[in-house]
Amino acid sequence: MSDLTAAGFAWVFLSVVSTICIAVGFYLPYWLVGTISLNGKRNIVYFGAFRRCNYPVFDQILKHFRIENRCGRYATFADIPSIYWQIATVSIGFGCALSLVLSFLLIPSCCFKHILSRNSAILVGLLQVVAAIAVSSGCVIYPLGWDNREVRDACGSRSNPYVLGECQLGWAYACMLSGAALTLLCGVLSICSVKEANYYTRHDHIENNYDRDDYNTRCSSHFRSNSFIDSRTLVEHKNGRNSDSGSHKWQITLNSRYKAEPV
């Protein structure tokens, strides 16, 4: 049994979906789509923040450039061709990692009780808002680097910050923005995701157990005390009866020993 409301189950489901959207969009370099003309042939190329697909390499055997039709990341962080892309990589990477951690924490709450309270759910929601802001900020910063040499080779000389030129946005970029919007929605849903009565029920259950244990302890001590008093009273009463019986027998013995003589 779970502590989540119907909105809570929707919250967990949307959290997982938004995390998948952000992670897939962040890793796959289909953010920006352009073309490169090489050796009389137009080749489609794709850009991400730290990865790209179909990039030109120099062939040592043929002694000219050719297109390497595969995806790869830049060799080092410094090789990323724009400072804005470097900032976007850090910002979106942070938001993606935070969203992943929160999603893994939320999944068990669908199956088990007492994992989330109302306050902890709101805290998770606030962290999801932080993750959404980080991802959105990275997506907003990314177009500032569209004036670097690699992008202009693919998008033309007219490409500038927030100006695509001959390129177009890829599906991975839209996927990240959608994931950020869903994560922001999840932050709102967290407010009504946990049953409010569960905390008080659990608290009352603890208090009831404490009161019951205290009552049992007091009853046990009271019973032992009364038992001791009753047993002592019974012993004293018995001793009293024995004492009275002995004195009565002693009086009978005296009466039988000394007889009155007639005057």
From TrEMBL:
Gene3D superfamilies in the cross-refs: 1.20.140.150
Bilayer-crossing regions: 7-28, 83-107, 119-144, 171-192
Gene Ontology CC: membrane
Subcellular localization(s) per the UniProt record: Membrane
Signal peptide: none
Keywords (A to Z) from UniProt: Membrane, Transmembrane, Transmembrane helix
Record bears the keyword Glycoprotein: no
Keyword Lyase: no
Highest taxon above the source species: Eukaryota
Membrane topology: Multi-pass membrane protein
Protein name: Lipoma HMGIC fusion partner-like protein domain-containing protein
